[in-house]
Amino acid sequence: MLFPERGVHVSASFFLLAALALIVSPVEIAASVLLAALLHECGHLLALKAFRVPVEGLRLTALGAVLYARGARRLSYARELAVTLAGCGVNLACGFLTALAARRLSWEGGFLFAGAHFLLAAFNLLPIPPLDGSRAFTLLVSFFFGPAAGDAAAAVTGLFFALALVGTGIYIAAETGGGVLFLLASLALLFGLFRQVRLAKRERKV
Amino acid sequence: MKRRWQGRRFPGKRGGRRAAPGRRKAPRAASERPPRMIAQIVVCGALFVALVGLKLMMPGHLSELRGTLGQWLVRDADFVAAFSAVGRAASGEQAWGDSLSEACVAVFGGEGRAQEASGELIGVTVPEQDVSGFVSERALPAQAVGEQRILGFSYVCPLSGTMTSPFGWRADPVSGEERFHYGVDIAGAEGDSVSCFADGSVGTVGESALLGNYVTVNHDLGFSTLYAHCSAIAVSAGQRVQKGEVIASVGATGNATGPHLHFEVHDGGQYLNPIYYVVS
Question: What pairing do the DSSP bridges indicate for beta strands A57-61 and A7-10?
Answer without folding.
Answer: parallel
